[in-house]
Amino acid sequence: MDQGELFRGVFLVVGAAVIGGALAHYMRLPVIVGYLAAGVVIGPNTPGDFGDPERLELVAEFGVAFLMFALGVQLSFRGLGRMWRVFAVGGVSHILLIMALGFPVGWALGLSGGEALFLGALMAMSSTMVALKIAETRGELGTPHARAAVALSLAEDIGVVPLMILLPAVAGSESGDVAALGEAAGKTALLLAATFILGTYVVPWLLFRVASTRSRELFVLAIVALAVGFAVGSSLLGLSIAFGAFLAGLIVSESEFGYQTLADVLPLRDVFATIFFVAMGMLIDVGFILDHADEVAIILAALVLGKFLIILAVASASGLRGGTPLMTALLLAQAGEFSFVLARVGIEEGAIDSDLNSTFLGAAMVSIILSPLLLHLAPAMLSGLRALPVTAPFLREPLSVHTGERPEELRRHVVICGYGDAGRELAQAVLRRGFRCLVVDLNPYVISDLRRRQMPCVYGDASRPEVLQQCGLENAQVLAITVPELAAAQLTVVNARAINPHLDIIARGRGPESHAVLKEAGAAEVIHPEFEGGLEFVRHTLRSYGVDSTQIASTLARRRIYYYER
User: How do the domains of the chain map onto residue ranges?
Assistant: First the structure.
């Protein structure tokens, strides 16, 4: 392959990724869908000579290496130690259960036991990136279900490391599985020993010497050499390059250069990972998927519905209550970026064939597309399941009231829904003035802390009428809804207004479109923290230029009128 063809291929991939990612963003889909679709368009399975995935194989390998290297830098040995409870209980259990789901699916598809095991592992991986992006778009990053989804998906990210080592040895061998597993374990132990020695005595010294030159270029080159070097060492031992890159990231994370390394490597990771996803898309044969639509549908059903039910059960068994398990399961009912990494390892090691890979890739891409759409149906799903006698007991919000007195005896108090930064500031201001307040929150740690301080509180979902009825809204002065989720805030306003039509309700909004929605629902005032924070920047900057305070107040007032009334 000459240089011209290589650069032509990289140009096609990057250009297609830009277009595909932009279209996905415009359609409010995860950008990974755009990258995969771009790969399908320029791949060899579509009309036209756009590109050859083999030309980009080396570049795609860099994408895998940097994905795993960045994961190692972000986690660290100490971080893994702090997460052991989440990983050992919820993480391991739901990964093993989803992997077990691969066997009935494999039986339906006529796969061997090893292929079915590998398919189950591919389905077990969810996308932290997709889950976080969906939660951020919906304004739910701080919610219990978003935190639970991140914890479980991080457990999956950690779990991909031993899976990359063990699965090819077991699933790819037709006989002597114990011997293959023992050989893989021995090579892994050898690499871990080398990692410990280098990480303790060599790498910190080397990075310090490079950093002392104060040359960012040399530092970045040293980091790249470290990641690629460990990847090569892992490959020479017959292990995956991704595992070696992950170990290199863990080594760096333990040094004082971890944060700077992460800042320098993230742009490289994003560029090479994008190329990797496009290269994976080039492997998708749309014609093959259409010809095997029934097989794709079986995997898709297991990947979305089966995974949803398993995570729902595990989240409920972990102590999550109400709608939190359902929302957590919906956030994770899709394939993830490490599914594609693991699939590539399976192809290279002969654990799965290209047909199974194409079938899974098609189902995985559809599952990622469906993920944000399913979240929009969550309120209707939750209401429907709560109406069914069989599922209602499992989805009922636990109600725990601690007021020190009966709720109906509270007078002229403030009910604060959500005890985040805004709710905490409001509570402190109200209490300093000698008024009463009652907090409603779904975080058990928050409620436990409030109980210790003898502050009136209710554990539950404030959007539920039965929870609001415990807050003494008939005698309340103000209801402050500080939760960021628009749907929850809107429902809280409607239900509170039904209990007390004359209640003064303040709600938190997200953008101008939410202002009209909450006002129409019955909120007396809607506060937009991001916008108000922007006005504080305006006020400070204008004052620094010597602008008169009266003029500043007039400017801010005009901006508020324009923002809230447009």
Answer: 3-382, 400-527
Of 126, 124, 102, 125, nearest in space to 115 by CA: 102
Do residues 55 and 37 lie in contact, with contact meaning Cβ atoms separated by under 8 Å?
no
- Token pair for 483: 């939760």
Task: Give the Cα-Cα-Cα angle 220, 221, 226 (nearest 5 degrees).
Answer: 100
**How far apart (Å, rounded) are the C-alpha atoms in residues 153 and 315?**
12
Alpha helices (runs of H) in 318-401, residue ranges in sequence order: 324-332, 337-349, 354-376, 378-387, 392-395
CATH annotation of 3-382: 1.20.1530.20
What is the per-residue DSSP string for 255-289?
Answer: STTHHHHHHHHHHHHHHHHHHHHHHHHHT--HHHH
CATH architecture of 400-527: 3-Layer(aba) Sandwich (3.40)
Smallest Cα–Cα separation from 506: which of 422, 432, 563, 436? 422
Q: Is residue 474 over pLDDT 50?
A: yes
Alpha helices in 110-143 (DSSP H): 113-124, 128-137
pLDDT for 3-37, tens place per residue?
A: 566 677 677 778 888 898 888 888 877 777 788 88
Q: Do domains 3-382 and 400-527 have the same CATH topology?
A: no
Helix (H, G, I), strand (E, B) or coil at 398: coil
In what helix (H) or strand (E) does residue 155 lie, and over which residues does it extend? helix 144-171
Taking only the tens place, the pLDDT of each residue in 130-151 is 776 677 666 665 666 777 777 7
What is the pLDDT at residue 175?
Answer: 41
Q: How many CB atoms lie within 10 A of CB 88?
A: 11
**Integer Cα distance of 113 and 106 in angstroms:** 7
Mean pLDDT of 260-266: 70
- Neighbouring-strand partners of residue 402: 457
pLDDT in tens, 537-563: 998 999 899 888 888 888 888 888 888
Q: How far apart are CA 319 and CA 305, in angstroms?
A: 22
- Answer yes or no: are the C-beta atoms of 343 and 279 closer than 8 Å: no
Is beta strand 478-481 parallel, antiparallel or unpaired with respect to 414-417? parallel
In single-letter form, the type of residue at position 300 comes to L
Q: State mean pLDDT over 181-195.
A: 66
Q: List C-alpha distances in Å: 146 to 91, 152, 174, 331, 364.
A: 15, 10, 41, 8, 21
Find out whether 324 and 391 touch, Cβ atoms under 8 Å: no
Asked if 163 and 342 count as a contact pair (C-beta separation under 8 A), the reply is yes
DSSP 8-state class, residue 476: -
- DSSP reduced 3-state for 371: helix
